[in-house]
Fold this protein.
Amino acid sequence: MPAFRVSSRIRGSVDIEAANWLIALGEGLAALGEPTSPDRLACERLMNGTVLVRDVRSGSGFVVQPLGGPEEEAEAEPEPVGDGDDMFPTLCPSDTPDADEEIAELDSDSMIPLELVRDTVASVARAMDIDAALALAVSAGVRLTNARGGSALLLEKIGLRFRYVVGDAATRLRGMRIPANAGVAGYSTNSHTSLIVLNAYADPRFYRNVDRHTGHRTGSLLCVPLAAHGRTFGCLELVDSAPGFSDEHLADMERIAEATAERLSLLVKPD
């Protein structure tokens, strides 16, 4: 049975015997008394077999080092998530939890806005795959603005696709495509414009088919484009802020979007 050393910067390290590094990680975190086990991991496996692991929701980092003995390759690699365009696929040992559960677990009072934006920008810059970067950006936006939901829409050849979504309409929106020029999202993406729409149904750019699909009625929107180095990736969109979207929210989301687009420029392969 191969052995691994599982290390946490805060809680030290422990040696675990397991069939592969992923099993060792789970058992190691339990042995170290980590309060939560990562259910969505961004991972990078180095040439020497060491695996660098980060929980994309909490930002916690771990290292799994082989201590000798052959790892059972047949069980070592979980299925990659994504549609093949990720340079660094996200590895998920379990299904992604529903987005509304993710939002419920977020502690919106744990950081002041300046700290949240700063830490999100830093975390996005280290994200090892597309979905990890988008998850960090959207989740931070929802926390920052106390929005009902948020989405990251990516521009594809056949339109804008809801790549990452949190909120009560998440299950209906994930994977949905809209025309590339449709709605506030299409306007923001194509014009590289950040904007707040206080009354969605009074704005002629609003794409009502999304509400028809989800059964929800959108009140207000905040949208910022994802563009860097002459490339357009899509946009981040937040809906229905409880206190109301503000200019400060827009400025903070522009910072997060700039960092996200910069990271996407490295992760998304050019056409």
